[in-house]
Amino acid sequence: MMKAVCLLSGGMDSSTLAYLAKSEGYEIYALHLNYGQRTEEKERACAKKIAGLLGAQDFVEVDVGYFARFGASSLTDPAIAVEGFDPARAHIPNTYVPFRNANLLAIATSYAESKDADAIFIGVQSLDYSGYPDCRPQFIDAFQRVIDLGTKETTHIALNTPFISMTKTEILKLGLALGVPYNHTWSCYRNETKACGTCGSCHFRKEAFAHAGVPDPIGYEV
What is the band of 126 on the pLDDT scale with cuts at 50, 70, 90? Predict the structure, then answer.
């Protein structure tokens, strides 16, 4: 059977992605990264639950808490307030963690090569999200080249980003068809008990559920 390393944060996109990979016939090797984010405890619990429901072959947690030492992101620095969603915003939001995806994909590549995996799945999207530069198709194409150059000649790992040109609503509808248990996922950047409802991640999640015409199974403060 084909093997896939799935970057599983515990959020709705990565959980949908893991269910998609499973539906395509991959054995799941779940990789959860703790980079010092505010909601790590909740995210870890959700990721473990999703991995268990999928019958993942492995669930590996890696601490990359050095991001918290670097700072410069409201997700990792408690002194920086998480920005609320602003449709008029012209800048990249302060929830951007500098060059995070390159770090995470490098770790995922090491894990995938060690397991002789066929693919890495990451749930980046570039349409209706927050404009993070490490979610762009050009970045993914470049990192595929890095994987090809930096691994053994006998290693062939495909970097799969099936959501990169999909909207959040399209991703949600796919997940609903796959039976993703969204009550076991978490998107809020601020809180671990009740989602704030106003950060960028909450905004796009709420909007997707509204457009899909189904209730979101998690609660919100607003």
Answer: confident
Classify 115 as helix, strand or coil.
coil
Give the CATH number of the domain where residue 174 resides.
3.40.50.620
Mean pLDDT of 169-183: 98
Domain that holds residue 156: 2-212
Helix (H) or strand (E) holding 159: strand 158-160
Q: What is the pLDDT of residue 89?
A: 80
Q: Would you state the pLDDT for residue 127?
A: 75
Please choose, from the candidates 67, 2, 68, 64, the residue with its C-alpha nearest in 3D space to the C-alpha of residue 29: 2
Helices (H) and strands (E) in the chain, counts: 7, 5
Taking every pair of Cα atoms in the chain, the longest distance, rounded to a whole number of angstroms, is 52
Residue 54 falls inside a structural domain: yes
Give 91's pLDDT tier (boundaries 50, 70, 90): confident
What are the tokens at 40?
């790590």
Residue 220 lies inside a defined structural domain of this protein: no
- 222 within a domain of the structure (yes/no): no
Count of structural domains within the chain: 1
What is 83-103 written as a DSSP string?
Answer: PBP-TT--SPPTTPPTTHHHH
145-181: string of b/e by CB count within 10 Å (b at 16+)? eebeeeeeeeeebbbbbbbbebbbbbbbbbbeeeebe
